[in-house]
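Good morning C.,

I know you're traveling, so I'll keep this short. The sequence:
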Amino acid sequence: MYFFKTSDFSSIKKCQKSVKEVSITTKSQEFTGYLQLDMRRRKYGYLGAAAIVFICMLWLFFIPDHKEIHFSERVKISLRDVGNQLLLEHQDSTSLVLPVIEIDRLNYEVSFERPLSITPNTIVTIVKEAFKRAELPGQYLVEVIQCKDQEVAYSYSILNDVERDIVPCASRVLPENCFTIKTQFIENPPPVLSRDMLLVLLFTLFSILMILAYWDRLFIRFRESVPSNTYNTSTTHTAIGIFKFYPEQNKLVKEAIEIGLSKKECELLAIFVSQPNQVIKRDELTKRVWEDNGVIVGRSLDTYISKLRKKLKDDTSIKITNLHGVGYKLEVNQ
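The tokens, ready to paste straight into the viewer:
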């Protein structure tokens, strides 16, 4: 019958612990890889959305508002049509409608070569139909002004609301006289989303998408800009090339990506970090890391060194070199 020694039980426990650490490390690496892939997908998604928003901003900024640009021309054409229709109502097909005068952006006037009489009902109908054909604003004030004394002979207002429209003396004919017809468009309230407001909203959305796409880099820069003494001692770290080593949390951090370390990997790396560019003998490493476990497996040190090398391989300025028969050295290029 074979009796187990205490050292045998220690070896079994050591083996079980090593297997557990390897399993945890593998799962940590798999999760880190998945996290990196997910972050890349999110980043490209945000950048794609930002590109679409940017194109919309350019379109809004450079495409002119044709209705606004041609408003003056449309008003002048429409008022000439009004003058022509008024003359035809009086069987006058020969006298001229004088050039339409633009007083300002909302005020225009038209006059005639010869005197004419005006029926309020007629001018209201003609102006309304002419403005509708030209797609002009539906709120305006019309004044019929006498040329001699510039007094208002007749006026009315249209506000696109039957109850608010004011059309007085609709059937009273104005006797033949020299008249000027002045039209004033009433400024409509700005739309809920004007062009400028839409540009501001799109720019805000573009900025948010860009921040979301690069939040990890911005966060790292922010953390680096804050003095280290503002953080709790539990988050202290040691810089190793592009990595940040957190011995108390058993992890490396590279650009906001955490790389998990097993307890033994962490202990070994802490020793190397404390003595960079110095040869550390195998016996010293083995004693300091495995001394408390009672049993030392011959190839354990080499196995964990190999794991550390894989996790540090992204930075070529640091490497763990082996001096055969002597020990290991963490080479850090300044």
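Safe travels,
E.
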